[in-house]
Amino acid sequence: MVTLNFTLLIELGLFLLFMWVTHKLFFKPVLRTMDERDESIEQDHAQAEEDSKNARSIDAKHIAELTRIRRAAEAEYAEAKRKTSKDHGEFVRAERTRSDQTVAKAREKAILDIEVIRPAVLESSPEMVRLISERLNVAEGGND
Fold it and tell me: How far is the C-alpha of 50 from the C-alpha of 52, rounded, in Å?
């Protein structure tokens, strides 16, 4: 059986004093630090959630802007291709017309030149026939 005596009361007092000092000097700061750490973790988690939402929003805006820019670029490309094709067609038509005119002028000049030269050629053809015949005879006679 336990008897209550003065030693037991002193031990109980010392134990309570130890608990009070331990609580004041150790447990309170540790608990305060743990509470602050838990609060900091919750704040960081909330900030991370908010940052994640902002990142998704920025990503969606980026994708929308990129899509808009791509569509604008494709429209500009199609317009440039259409304009280039049109300009090329016009250039080809203009050059074809110019070349047809040049050919027509050359043809007219050639016809005029033929008509001018024809009488002289017809007039000199008996002479040319004779000269050709002589040269062929000389070439045949030289080979025998």
Answer: 5
